[in-house]
Amino acid sequence: MPVDVLAEVLANSRLSDDYSVVALAAPAIARQARPGQFVMVKPAAGFDPLLRRPFSVFEILHDPDGTPRGITLLNKRVGVGTGLLYAARPGDHLACLGPLGTPFDVVGPPARAWLVAGGVGLAPFATLAAALAARGTETTLFYGARRAADLHGIEIFEPLGVRTIVATEDGSRGDRGLITGPLARELDGLDARTEARIYACGPTAMMRAVASLAAGRDLRCDVSLEQTMGCGMGGCYSCVVRVRGEDGQPHFVRSCLAGPVFDARAIVWDELAGH
């Protein structure tokens, strides 16, 4: 069950002029959080911003004895709320509600796991990679951004044994172009008998392209949608998306409850393109 806590800021590590990783003391949330879930955070008291903002749980923090003690959030400063979170200082307290949402299905061997992240879409994959490593699942991270300066957090995946493939649009690191290019190349070299699960999070156009590549090879692809959310608990209906049910008929669901993780085959992508 989600809990609403006033979480103390333990640290705010500035990664660049826009990115930071905020560590929060939230043991009640950390004990329950599963890969792919999120929290709703109000970065300051008052009415600006009025509503909380959703953030994927980036990492689970542990005491030396292994007891969960808190979580981290990967934050990109783009507006008032994320700007306040970027400016948060150790000792500040933030209202934090979670964990919320449907988590990832963590596959085990002999299946392989391929994580495809665009920019801040890396956020839900640190906990997923840790869970996959615990199961002994061979994992590859495909990580794309506009430029090398926008790539953050790769060092978290290396100790987990995750193979990493990088692409930048300006060619400043890794392949030049979109991350779907290296993904398609790796898929072309995949043995037809190999079991693989693709997980994707990032810009809608990227996730749609990844879903298409997976479908063309009859592979399951799970996407973590980044919809605007007002409450995170299904009360405001601000995060509805259209999906197809088992009967093939489209209907609306609230992504904070039915998601944010969805089987990509269920998404009506044409109606999601504007998000």
Find the CATH topology of the largest domain. Answer: Rossmann fold
Mean pLDDT: 94
Number of helices: 8
Helical residue percent band: 10-25%
The CATH H-level homologous superfamily of the largest domain:
Nucleotide-binding domain of ferredoxin-NADP reductase (FNR) module
Instruction: Give me the side-by-side strand order of the main sheet.
Output: 4-3-7-1-2-6-5
Q: Beta-strand percentage?
A: 25-35%
Total domain units: 2
> Which CATH architecture of the largest domain is right?
3-Layer(aba) Sandwich
Let me know the largest β-sheet. Answer: 7 strands, antiparallel
| Structure class | alpha/beta
Listing every helix as H and every strand as E from the N terminus to the C terminus, the arrangement reads EEHEEEEHEEHEHEEHEHEEEHEH
How many β-strand stretches? 16
Kindly provide the name of the CATH class of the largest domain.
Alpha Beta
Low-confidence stretches: none
Q: How far is the N terminus from the C terminus?
A: 29 Å
* Radius of gyration based on Cα positions: 18 Å
How would you describe the shape? globular
